[in-house]
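Subject: Re: docking follow-up (pyridoxal-5'-phosphate)

Dear J.,

Thanks for your patience while I sorted out the input files. As discussed at Tuesday's group meeting, I've set up the holo structure prediction with pyridoxal-5'-phosphate included as the bound ligand rather than trying to dock it afterwards. The sequence and the ligand SMILES I used are pasted below, so you can double-check that they match what you have on your end before we go further.
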Amino acid sequence: MNFDLPVNRTRTASVKWDYTLGQFGADDVLPMWVADMDFAVPPAVIEALHTRVKHGVFGYTLQTESYQEAIINWMQQRHSWNIQPEWIQYCPGVVPALSLIVEVFTEPEDQVIIQTPVYPPFYNVVKDHGRELVQNPLILNEQGDYEIDFEDLERSLSNERAKIIILCSPHNPIGRVWTQAELSRIASLCEQYDVLVVSDEIHADLIYEPGSHIPFASLSEDAAMRSFICTAASKTFNIAGLNTANIIIANDTLRRRFHKVLKRYALGTITPLGAVATESAYREGGEWLDALLTYVRGNMEYVQSYIQQHIPEIKVKLPQATYLLWIDFRGLGMSDEELNRFLVQKAKIGMNRGSSFGTNAEGFMRMNMACTRATAEEAMSRLHAAITEWRKETN
Ligand SMILES: Cc1ncc(COP(=O)(O)O)c(C=O)c1O
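The structure tokens for the complex came back this morning:
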């Protein structure tokens, strides 16, 4: 578990490292964008995969009782959430699940609510099905923290065409862990207006205060009956390329309908390597995860204190969850386009543009901190040098 050890990811067909030219128009940027990690997965996962690979046959694969048990234990131990084996529905990814749920549980004239700024595919899974997208913009308060605008949310939920709200819990990119009070208020509004809840909880394990994340379905019986909880070991253990997610659906009717659409597109069969990696990560990866969180937090604290000390024009708050830093560059007074050009061409750092998460996030950037400390230091040194130049030019 030496997270300082660099792993060369170039020429591994890595989206983050090998697609910078396509993404940024430059191949000399330090890639700190796509949400995967630069670290090798837990040793126990590598070992389990080795054993499976050595077997040599990779035919159609079952979701075993042992696989389900690993998920059940993890949810119980990490999130105090009791789930039943039959609630677990495999899906090749969380985003495919969001898309299928919108397709099956809404009609073309229906509305789907999302809380912006948010992970860009939330927009696509609604718009690509021709459903009406309704935004419930998060409020950025004077302390630089995001809050839910409940008045606006109730207005949206009360529309009779509103059928689904997609929550991001914890929220990417702003890094909030929603509190019990916030989630309960959402749950009671959804009950009142009879709206289904899709809770994307893919970042749930990446929290900096143990036990702070509350699975939406654990709030109440009604919340369990109207929700789809999208989970995966993919962000937590860096196995996103293995295409394995688990959608937890307590309501039999909703689950049957979801299962039917998975079958329709022939998407319901787990892959042998995805199954092995997910099960071994949940069974044996806990200690690795705790060490990872400490390391990533260290990266974030380093970046925050560097920025405070050397680049006071920029603001950064530590997130409650995710390995992503949400950085406020508005103090530079650049347009979104100028800021992007400055970071790519002058600082040579590849981050995700705030505007890709929502029009209310222009001037922000998302920086992936699941990297070695040396990469974080290199990023700060590049940024500082570019800012120093910029100060000279503008003064
Ligand atoms: C909120 C959220 N949902 C889903 C995903 C991706 O899920 P998957 O790769 O399982 O489709 C991401 C990846 O960054 C994410 O941040």
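A couple of observations from a first look. Residues 35, 93-95, 119, 168, 172, 200, 202, 232, 234, 240, 245 surround pyridoxal-5'-phosphate (CB under 6 Å). Residues 250 and 359 are 35 Å apart (CA to CA).

Let me know if you'd like me to rerun anything.

Best regards,
T.
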